[in-house]
Amino acid sequence: MKTRVLGFVAVAAVIGASINGLFVVPADMNQGDAQRIMYVHVASAWIAYASFGVTALAGLGYLVWRDLRLDALALAGAEVGVIFTAFAIWGGMMWGRPVWGVYWQWEDPRLTTTALLLALYIGYLLLRRLTDDPARRAARAAVVGLIAAVDIPIVHFSVIWWRGLHQTPTFGDPSKVLNPSAPLQFVLALLGMLSAFTLVWIYLLIRRYQLARLDWRLEDAARRGRVAAAHGSAMGAASVEEPAR
Amino acid sequence: MNDLRRGLSVALAIARKDAISELRGRQAAGSTIFFAALVLLLFGFALGPDSQRLALAAPGLLWLAIVFGGLLTMARLHQLEADDGAFEQLALYPVDRRAIYAGKALAGAAAMLVLGGLLLPVVAILYGVPIGGAWLPLLGAVVLGAIGFAAVGTAYAGLTIRMRAREVMLPLLMLPIVAPLLLAAVKATVASLGGDPLGELGSWLQLLVAFDVIMLVVGAGTYGFLLED
Fold first, then answer.
1. What pTM, to 2 d.p., does this model score?
2. Domain count across chain B
């Protein structure tokens, strides 16, 4: 029930932030209306990174405590993260076409990093689908999630050295915070969108987590049913699930 | 101290076992190298007869061939263990998991080094790249690249070897991970072949060292979880 309320609040927040970003805030002087894409683009990129952080930490937690609930959280993070990553790349391409003149800018470190990020976590999700045993799946996924997480900073630094033309980040640079190049209204629009996206993100994480738990209960029941059936039909062998490795 | 020495001797024993089985079953190692050389030949056809263009693309093509051959090498080194349930035997030994990982990674790095070392002259001949004057930095890049590839490959081959669809899963998981390694190795190769006019060779080699160290630490830390599953 609480989750449902959160869902409604999240949708309302996104609608509000969108109206603000589309109609209330004025268009950028140089980039025109294309700059409005930045509100959703930057917000979804941040959310994507947060999701993969959740996946890595939950995976690490699983390896330590062996609790499948943590694995469900890791799965939720990866799946939601892949969606937001794809959305961020799509938004970046829509923005890049009018501003840079191309959809894909190879010299941009963040675009290439994000593309690899997408590939890494699609691999993570595929790996999960190909392993049936819950504990084995959780351990393998945790290892892949960890290796992917430590790889991301290396990818980022290596492509930065290619010399990019991406705008340097506006946040996090002290001189820019003290003397902002972006007007306050723009900054607030971005922060508003980020907050709205965060609500959606939390809602999706909770729902995906719940779905995973239900899914696995079903899997478990099916497995037990099959084992019982094998016993009942006097076939003897109980482990019909996975062949001996 | 004693633990370290024991771990080291376990790692060396495992690497030695892999090396011996590689040398005795020469066909598999040989055909992997032949495959990589064939890839280089086909790149030549794909990019046309323009020798200048080929020479320009040579560093990138060399490393792509090493990556493709390396994927087969990593899979093969773990196939040895998966056949006849040797992996389970390995997991049952009362030794540190990190030592087992170190041994497999060492064998993998050695195989990768042989692959890279043999492909270098092939590139030199096929694409007309003079490597004689730059052999030392080139060798450095190949050694560091081999270590990094084996560090990731050992963990991922150990993970995928008992999976369905492992033939596609190993490259699918590994290729995005080794992207920074590929990038740095290619840049280092370009820099060493061009006489390093911008003085950037050192930075790319450092990046390779960082990649190697990070992946070795993570691989050693997680390999045990893959063995026991």
1. 0.88
2. 1
Q: Which residues contact B155 (CB under 8 A, 6 or more apart)?
A: A143, A147, B101, B215, B218, B219, B222, B223, B226
**In this structure, what token pair is assigned to residue B36?**
């990589």
Among B112, B41, B119, B128, CA closest to B76: B112
Q: What is the DSSP letter of A171?
A: T
In this complex, the residue of B160, B210, B229 whose CB is nearest that of residue A136 is B229
Intra-chain end-to-end CA distance of chain B, in Å: 29
Q: Tokens in use for B167? A: 């033939």
pLDDT digits (tens, 9 = 90+) for B14-52: 899 888 888 887 667 888 999 999 999 999 999 878 888
ipTM: 0.91
Residues of B in contact with A62 (CB under 8 A): none
pLDDT digits 0-9 by tens, A133-170: 899 999 999 999 999 999 988 888 887 776 543 445 55
SS3 category, B28: helix
**Contact present, B205 and B145 (Cβ < 8 Å):** no
Terminal Cα distance for chain A, rounded: 44
Residues B171, B175, B176, B177, Cα dihedral to 10°: 100
Structural domain of residue B178, as residue ranges?
Answer: 2-227
User: CB-CB: which of A63, A119, A155 is closest to B225?
Assistant: A63
